Amino acid sequence: MIRDTGPAVDRAISVPRWRSLLFVPAHVPRFVEAAHERGADGVILDLEDSVPQDQKAESRRQLSASVAKVGRKGSAVLVRVNRGLRALAADLEAAVVAGVDALVLPKTDSADWVSEVANAVTELEQERNLPLGRIRFLAQIETPGALQRLTAIASADPRLVAMALGPEDFSASVGGAPEFDLLLMPNLSVLFAARAAGLLPLGFIGSIGEFSDTHKLREAAAHARRLGFAGALAIHPTQVAIFNEAFSPSAQELEWARRVVAAENDAATSGLSAFSLNGKMIDPPVVRRAHEILALADSN
């Protein structure tokens, strides 16, 4: 999928394939050193919640070296910045460098804020002779107020390529616990807004902090993919393999998709747009799903 990214942005940039994005605290050297071995599609060097206030400055100073380390095996490199203006300014100075593929914007609550960050990133790219528009955005939705503005947020800037609900922060903001009933509606709202804008919807219905119950996590991730999510954010390496598998087509799905596409070709020779396969009616939306499954397999 290619998005219209405007005159200042490289139009060849496509929406990425992010089944798993692993958070790594930027101030812990052993985590940074090992991140490239975890198998994640992307690594998020975190400058926000996981980094103590008194270690943020040093994390920024080491960021360029950390970017090179976590991207050694071809994973996408993302940096989560802080929300406060003073910290954000310092984060952008450190993070807008070669090798960074995207910024994770926490507590995103308006289109205006996304646009302001985008303008600042553009200025830094110009000053540093970096490709304009190469650094993309992943917006984290973490407040009930942001839910009311999802459509505007999703279309705020061409740099935005993904959205995800922050389940822990969102639950805390409404005075609740990160349970299924509370998180279902906001997750679906993010999913619908992201898909409508051509963005990647990331997440699953549950707490991101639950990683020890792998069976439960695997079920939650598989359920999320059936709902339409494309991947999820991970806070522990254990989650990465689970997400990579859950957000990839299974062997059974691939076989079904191949049969549908083969039958579609046969039907086309007879001038049919809808046809029967194994006792079920197959029409254009089902055919589209089959092609999407095969495309996902090709992109893994």
Summarize the structure.
Helix content is 47%, strand content 15%.
Notes on the structure:
The longest helix is centred in the last third of the chain and has 19 residues. Helix 1 links the parallel strand 1 and strand 2. This protein has two domains: 227 residues, TIM Barrel, CATH 3.20.20; 49 residues, no CATH class. The protein starts with 19 loop residues before the first strand and ends with a helix. The chain is built from 13 helices and ten strands. With 300 residues, it is of the alpha/beta class. The relative contact order is 0.11. Helix 10 runs parallel beside helix 11 and helix 12 crosses helix 13.
Question: Which key terms come to mind for this protein?
Answer:
alpha/beta; TIM Barrel; globular
What kind of sheet is the major sheet? 8 strands, parallel
The number of strands is 10
Mean pLDDT level: 91
- Apparent shape: globular
Q: Topology of this structure?
A:
Blueprint: E1 20-25, H1 29-34, E2 42-46, H2 56-61, H3 63-70, E3 76-80, H4 85-95, E4 102-105, H5 111-127, E5 136-141, H6 144-147, H7 150-154, E6 160-165, H8 167-173, H9 180-197, E7 200-202, H10 214-227, E8 232-234, H11 237-246, H12 251-269, E9 275-277, E10 280-282, H13 284-299
Parallel strand pairs: 1-2, 1-8, 2-3, 3-4, 4-5, 5-6, 6-7
Antiparallel strand pairs: 9-10
Helix pairs in contact: 10-11, 12-13
